[in-house]
Amino acid sequence: MSRSSAVVDTGFWGTCCRLGIHLYLTRIWPDPVLVPGAVMAEIFRQPAFMTSPAAASWAAWGPLYRDQAEFLNAFLQRTVQPSNPNRSHMTLFHPGERAVIDLAVELHADALIDEQKAHDHAITQGLDALSVPEYLVILLREGILTVTQAVTAFQQLVALGRSPQPFIDWARYQLQAQGGQI
Q1: Which of 108, 114, 72, 79 has its CA nearest to residue 96?
Q2: How many angstroms separate the CA atoms of 121 and 101, rounded?
Q3: Other CB atoms closer than 10 Å to residue 56's CB: what's the count?
């Protein structure tokens, strides 16, 4: 099932990298997944990305964390693409979440957000907002992951403690309905 384009938030990206399921984003969203500069600044811990990615000094970074290295790899493979909203429409949330929602609204794209309040707000804006647990269930339903793989990833997700409990509870129910033993 091909979906519209998607805009990814920092927490969603980092959690998916930890679980190894970021590699499947292009199986759900065939266009490059969009990443606002504010999210890139959060991923790379470089405030210069908020205004200009070129302003950040690549050589000064030193060793990269996994989410950073995976982002660079995805960027080089053109599966993620920097993009900023034309303007900011809200003052709620962190800069990355604001930029994700603003850009998703402008482009009528899916908002990949794993933070409960920002996720819920995106839905009130008429967006399809997806948390990491929801994405995991989509991967199972699309046959990209087997039940065993989805349950293993789900158990790792629970152990990380990053996703809000309502998202976890929903995914647990969905995985059990698909035969997952959790």
Answers
A1: 114
A2: 8
A3: 18
